[in-house]
Amino acid sequence: MNKKTKALTTGQYKEIIQTMREGFSGCRPNERIATALVLEGNLGLRISDILKLRPCDIVRDGDRYRLEVTEQKTGKRRVFTVPLVIQQYIENYCLRNGIGRDALIFPITERAIQKQLHIVCDYLGYEGISTHSFRKWYATEIYKANDYDIALVQRLLQHSSAAVTQRYIGIEPQRIETAIQNHAQLI
Length: 187
What we know:
Structural class: mainly alpha
Number of strands: 3
Low-confidence stretches: none
Strand content: 5-15%
Distance between the termini: 44 Å
Number of helices: 9
Oligomer: single chain
């Protein structure tokens, strides 16, 4: 895990994706990379696993959609429900771009994504952000939206312990700072 990589704020997430989609002077719009980063931020997968996705990997299972991946980094198998809105997002992207069911959704390299993201972040004045910041944003937002349930986030990210997950999303330093602030009792 890259300790220098920060989790995004929701504002940064939106601004990066919008800038990536629209482009700016000296940088063309790039919907492909923006879409890959949106999926990383909404599925919590590493970018290496996003780049291996094919439309046929998302399988209809009754009234829901399911995705089964073997994580490249850990070799762990992960099966989870893909929210309908995300499944439709992927399906629409594939239709717009003529991507067949068995083709890679994103036939690009991690390096290409990192390079484009670096250009956009330089333009926006953001430091310490990499593709992994999108996975960290996912983890942090899930944590906050689910009553600070670290065990839930640990399971979603398939971490070996809650302590690893706490370090990953930077909760421990945040909790220490809060505890110090809340303790101050001047007379």
